[in-house]
Amino acid sequence: MAHTSSRTTIVFIVVALVSAFVPAFSVEEAEAKSLWDTCLLKISPKCALDIIGVVFENLTITDACCHDLVQEGKMCHDTLIKYIAEKPHLVAHETEYLTKSDALWTHCVSISQTA
Asked: Which UniProt keywords apply (predicted)?
């Protein structure tokens, strides 16, 4: 029961973070739901936070989260990171974030291929 409660809390945190970072003017409601249904549900909430942390805060990622990221797919990863990077207070460093996102993808693909 405690595990379910903590997982629910983590999902709520991820939803709140993504909602805070995703600019409303870039994503229409139907598109946002489609993005959520097809992309964010493919990875664990912890890995979603780790991915955001790597790109926007210089944190690290586990091999397990790399596998989740590769399973999510490049299109989903690029789209979600680009939406977050376009947030007005982040857009000045968008190129840096997109470069880090590409480096993360390359790293995770190499990790996934060696396993």
From this structure: Signal
Domain ranges of the chain: 42-114
Per residue in 40-55, pLDDT (tens digit) is: 777 888 998 999 999 9
For residue 23, what pLDDT band results from cuts at 50, 70 and 90? very low
Close Cβ partners of 10 (under 8 Å, ≥ 6 residues apart): 44, 45, 46, 49
Q: What is the DSSP letter of 43?
A: S
Work out the average pLDDT over 50-72: 93
C-alpha to C-alpha distances, 7 to 14, 19, 65, nearest whole angstrom: 11, 18, 16
pLDDT at 91: 87
26 DSSP 8-state letter: T
Where residue 58 falls (left for φ over 0; alpha for ψ -120 to 50; beta otherwise) is: left
Residue 40 DSSP class: G
